[in-house]
Design brief:
The protein is α/β, with parallel strands linked by helices. The protein is about 45% helix and about 20% strand. It has a single domain, classed as SPOUT methyltransferase, trefoil knot domain (Alpha/beta knot, 3-Layer(aba) Sandwich). It is built from five helices and five strands; from the N terminus they run E-H-E-H-E-H-E-H-E-H. A five-stranded parallel β-sheet has the order 2-1-4-3-5. Helix 3 links the parallel strand 3 and strand 4.
C-alpha cells in the first residue's frame, strides 16, 4: 500500500523537509509515504481567492488519481493514535493507494470534499500547512509502530 501526502505549496523550508523525511524514511515499503507538492493557485491583488482554491482543488484531485481520498482539515474528525492505527490497518488491508490532501492558505475546494471518504483533523487549532507535513508523517509512523508492537509508541 502506498500513502501519498499531497499538499499545496512548493516553498518548503529545509527543516520541514528534514522533519518529514525523518519519519517518511522510517516507514517500511508496505506502508510507504510519498510527499507530493502542488503549486498554489495564483493570488493576485484584488483577485477572487475562490478561483485559486478551485485551481488547487483541480490539481489536488488530478494528483490523487484513483486513490482513496482523505482530507486534512481542522473541521474533520480528531482521531486518537489508536484510531489512526485502526484506519491505517484498514487501508493496508485494502491495499489501494490512499491520498491525504492538504489544501492551501484558503482551504480546500468543495470538489475535494465531495470526492473524499472522510476528513481527518490533527487538531482544532489552525496549524501552518507546512507543519502538517511533519505531523502527518510522524503520526503515520507512530500508528504503524503501534500496529507492529514497536516500542516507539509507549502510551
Amino acid at each position: 500500500m502506498r500513502l501519498r501526502l499531497i499538499t499545496v505549496g512548493t516553498r518548503v523550508p529545509e527543516w520541514i523537509r528534514t522533519g518529514t523525511e525523518e519519519y517518511r524514511r522510517r516507514l517500511p515499503p508496505e506502508c510507504a509515504l510519498e510527499v507530493e507538492e502542488i503549486p498554489p493557485g495564483r493570488r493576485a491583488k484584488g483577485a477572487d481567492p475562490a478561483r485559486a482554491v478551485r485551481v488547487e482543488g483541480e490539481r489536488l484531485l488530478a494528483a490523487a488519481g484513483r486513490a482513496r481520498v482523505w482530507l486534512l482539515d481542522e473541521r474533520g474528525a480528531a482521531w486518537t493514535t489508536r484510531e489512526l492505527a485502526g484506519r491505517l490497518a484498514g487501508w493496508m488491508a485494502d491495499g489501494r493507494e490512499v491520498a491525504l490532501l492538504v489544501g492551501g492558505a484558503d482551504g480546500l475546494d468543495p470538489a475535494c470534499r465531495a470526492r473524499a471518504e472522510g476528513v481527518w483533523s490533527l487538531s482544532r487549532l489552525t496549524l501552518p500547512h507546512l507543519l502538517v507535513r511533519v505531523l502527518v508523517a510522524e503520526q503515520l509512523y507512530r500508528a504503524w509502530t503501534l500496529l507492529r508492537g514497536h516500542p516507539y509508541h509507549r502510551a
